[in-house]
Write a structure and sequence with these properties.
This protein is of the alpha/beta class. It folds into two domains: 40 residues, no CATH class; 237 residues, 2-enoyl-CoA Hydratase, Chain A, domain 1, CATH 3.90.226. Helix content is 40%, strand content 14%. It is built from twelve helices and nine strands. The strands form two sheets. Strands 3-4-5-6-7-8-9 form a seven-stranded mixed beta sheet, sandwiched between helices. A two-stranded antiparallel sheet has the order 1-2. A hairpin with a 6-residue loop joins β1 and β2. α5 runs parallel beside α6. The chain binds zinc ion. The site of zinc ion has 8 residues, from loops.
Length: 318
């Protein structure tokens, strides 16, 4: 009878070990290295696998906690709310889609914009929220970001933007696409005024966001193994009818090709942004060993080279 049960359609249920409290034992399997990791350990490690270092998704709120000094973030431009000017309907009306995204994320739009202190330096900070309609850029995202850039320009405070996006929001059609030109034009004014801008690309950053403000930083940083590109790999494969190598459109590949300046682990992101801001605002090379908590000698050499190349570029444009 037991033998027959193996081939029956109703399979015997597998007992999963679970804690009494919440029905979840806390152990998860890393999709990269397949090691078992406890979720507490993963959280303490900023959502990175402690065994292989794989960077898992990190929410926009967690990023603000990571980058901004404690309680220093002040959100701005929240008076701008999404509307549906085109009365767009795809599989559901856009207004319904907005309401669902708002209920799910607890936020009214897909970006946080505001000012904060990063290691005591006043900074304009924008963080895109992938949890809200895939971090897509609609007119509110573009306008909030543009106003932040204009504020940075007016006050002369450096700008840091953390991108995580599937691209322009199709439900707002050309109104979304306009945001690419608008944010880029505002960044050009910021550049003319000599105010530094650091762009941080996280997994995934694609479409109109990569094709506009995310690629315009004075220094462009990416997290390890992040997918960064214009069209996603599936679309590229369908168009060129070839299989892409698994490394294509990843941070490491883009660094090799010169599309980004450096790859920085999440745990070192705040320190390194701080070093870059010190360098870009003071026009003097910072003392790297004292300003970074965990400098490996290889890392220091790479950072020195990067700062040298930025300095050469600055001299060329002056
Ligand atoms: Zn792992």
């Amino acid at each position: 009878m037991g033998f027959l049960r193996l081939f029956s359609k109703t399979k015997p249920k597998i007992k999963v070990e679970a804690s009494k409290k919440d029905g979840f034992s806390g152990w998860v399997k890393c999709s990269q290295c397949t090691e078992m990791v406890h979720s507490n350990e993963m959280q303490e490690n900023l959502n990175c696998c402690p065994k292989c270092g794989h960077h898992y998704r990190f929410s926009a709120a967690q990023r603000i906690d990571l980058l901004a000094d404690e309680n220093s973030f002040e959100e701005l431009f929240t008076e701008l709310k999404p509307i549906d000017p085109l009365e767009f309907v795809d599989s559901e009306p856009y207004t319904q889609r907005i309401a669902r995204a708002q209920a799910k994320s607890g936020r009214d739009e897909g970006i946080y914009t505001g000012t904060c202190l990063i290691n005591e330096r006043k900074t304009a900070l924008a963080v895109m929220d992938f949890g809200y309609m895939g971090g897509s850029m609609g007119s509110v995202v573009g306008e909030r970001l543009t106003r932040l850039i204009e504020l940075a320009c007016e006050k002369g405070i450096p700008l840091v933007v953390v991108s995580s996006s599937g691209g322009a929001r199709m439900q707002e059609s050309s109104l979304s696409l306009m945001q690419m030109a608008k944010t880029s034009a505002a960044l050009a004014r910021l550049d003319n005024k000599g105010v530094p801008y650091i762009s941080v690309l996280t997994n995934p950053t694609t479409g109109g966001v990569t094709a506009s403000f995310a690629s315009l930083g004075d220094i462009i940083i990416a997290e390890p193994d992040a997918l960064i590109g214009f069209a996603g790999p599936r679309i590229v494969e369908q168009t060129i009818r070839q299989k892409l190598p698994s490394t294509a459109q990843k941070s490491e590949f883009l660094l090799e090709k010169g599309m980004i300046d450096c790859i920085v682990k999440r745990s070192e992101l705040k320190d390194k942004i701080s070093v870059f801001l010190e360098f870009l605002t003071s026009n003097q090379k910072p003392n790297l060993s004292s300003s970074m908590k965990t400098p490996g000698s290889d890392e220091l050499e790479k950072l020195k080279k990067l700062l040298d190349s930025v300095e050469t570029q600055k001299n060329l444009t002056n």
